[in-house]
User: Fold this.
Amino acid sequence: MAKNTLTLIDNRVDKTYEIEIESATIRAKDLRQIKVTEDEFGMMSYDPSFENTASCKSGITFIDGDKGILRYRGYPIEQLAESSNQLEVSKLLIDGELPNEKEFRKWQLDIQSNNAVPEPIKDIIQAFPKNAHPMGTLISLVAALSTFYPEAKNITNDKENYLNICRLIAQVPILAAHFYRHSQNLTLIPPDNSLSYAENLLNMMFDGDEKKLHPNIVDAMDKLLILHADHEQNCSASVMRNVGSSEPDPYSSVSAAASALYGPLHGGANEAVLEMLGDIQTADDIRSFLDKVQNKEVKLMGFGHRVYKAYDPRAKCIKKAADSVFAITGTNPLLDIALQLESIALSEEYFIARNLYPNVDFYSGLIYQSMGIPTEMFTVLFAIGRTAGWLAQWKELLSDDEQKIARPRQIYTGYGSRNYIDVSKR
Ligand code: CMC
Assistant:
């Protein structure tokens, strides 16, 4: 009978090892027994950027990158985007099951009753330059929350953790909307518990503006938050887990995860796509732009993904949601350029050979822009949706007995030992 093991032969010493396989994976630590001499450290695996390393076992999000499948807790993303709402999806991600009506009402109430940001936070917001990047302010403000909730560092206390999860889900959108209002010289709008999560966010930004709070727009915002809510061990979720593994309070970990999201290769791509489409300007410029991409002078932002080697299912859902927004706001003039860019790119050998397809960020910015949201706020919206996923990853980490402080190894390539030289002799 076939055995669930891997046999390795170390040709340096002609020695054979048999290593257990679980879920088509071997434990990197099993390699440590492979050594030439007893006093050696033992073999490691080298995996820059973790392209082929599983850092945890997780029951939250499933992705099949070849087939373009994404599920939260087993539920297909398309069904959740169509029928659920952001608060329900947050509960699903964090606690593992869709809530019944009573559970949902309690969850909603717990979030709403924790939505008073500490008053001094508003003074901190006033101190930021109005032209500051909203991601810089969000990262700072989430970290600042930890100073007002010092008990949050008691991460072995489930009640305390639940309270801080509720505060983060409630307050991250408030921090974002309050800074937006400050940047526009407008008065801050407090949260309104009679509104849904998405409508409340839009209302705190746009203060009852009926066009910007149209049901189609609220619905699209809700879908966008759901589509961004989790994506298994991506860069920011890994940061959430890495920072969380040293056991600080969750505000510090979420702030660190948001910093990871900020970059243009991750959540910052939505902003970069809009800048790119703005630079292309007309359909006539697409050819020369794609030539530059193929010469590796620039990247086609919003394309490509570490895991998806097929169309990102989130991008499909976003394309659908776009129509209902454009029906209210009128078509975004950059949409035609985006559609043509996509269609030409998908037919070219460079993109076909590398399995490069639009990702979640290719179309999301066009919707946000049509909703009247400034480009610099796009990644902040991603962070608001993703907060639930980060917290779900953090909660799972805390309950995983196999996890310890994250501490990768290195292959040292620097100098051997050498003596200090006085500055006068250098
Ligand atoms: N434009 C042009 N070429 C690309 C692109 C792109 N957007 N993405 C990948 N490639 C090329 C890359 O140059 C490489 O070519 P070669 O084999 O000749 O060296 C090949 O495709 C494989 O790419 P890679 O860089 O090894 O892939 P990766 O898994 O390390 O990077 C990525 C994934 C998302 C960082 C990358 O595709 C990228 O930079 N995309 C643009 C930024 C972007 O849209 N990011 C949002 C990701 S989805 C939202 C999120 O969850 O963050």
User: Anything to note?
Assistant: The chain has one domain: 75-406. The longest helix spans residues 158-183. The pocket of carboxymethyl coenzyme *A is lined by residues 231, 234, 265-267, 269, 293, 299-306, 354, 356, 359-361 (CB under 6 Å).
